[in-house]
């Protein structure tokens, strides 16, 4: 159990460091999204392709509640919406 605890602590520290760098670079990524991207990289996803995907999705994203002109919260996502990361992830 000691090695599992050490591995979990190291993973948490790595995520925190990556999040701090993300904040300095003003990426706009939250911890959860960053952890998903890191997990995809760990599974063999191309980091440059993921970066391009994040850029594309960020530029196409609808305005958030903080940027909405009327101040109303955006509608909740529908449960039938397709996932951005399908469960059939294929490694190259």
Structure summary:
The chain is an all-alpha fold. It has helices spanning 2-24, 31-42, 47-60.
Task: Show the helix and strand layout.
Blueprint: H1 2-24, H2 31-42, H3 47-60
Helix pairs in contact: 1-2
Estimate percent helicity: 40-55%
Number of helices: 3
Structural class: mainly alpha
Q: What does the main sheet amount to? A: none
Mean pLDDT: 78
Say how many strands there are. 0
Which blocks of ≥5 consecutive residues have pLDDT under 50? 79-83, 87-92
General description of the model:
There is one protein chain. The C terminus is likely disordered. The radius of gyration is 16 Å and the shape is globular. It has three helices and no strands. It is mainly α and about 90 residues long. Helix 1 packs across helix 2.
Summary tags:
92 residues; 3 helices; single chain
């Amino acid at each position: 159990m000691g090695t599992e605890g050490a591995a979990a602590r190291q993973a948490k520290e790595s995520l925190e460091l990556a999040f701090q760098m993300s904040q300095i670079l003003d990426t706009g990524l939250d911890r959860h999204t960053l952890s998903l991207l890191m997990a995809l990289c760990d599974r063999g996803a191309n980091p440059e392709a993921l970066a391009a995907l994040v850029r594309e999705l960020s530029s196409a994203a609808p305005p958030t509640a903080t940027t909405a002109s009327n101040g109303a919260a955006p509608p909740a996502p529908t449960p039938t919406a397709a996932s951005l990361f399908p469960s059939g992830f294929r490694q190259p």
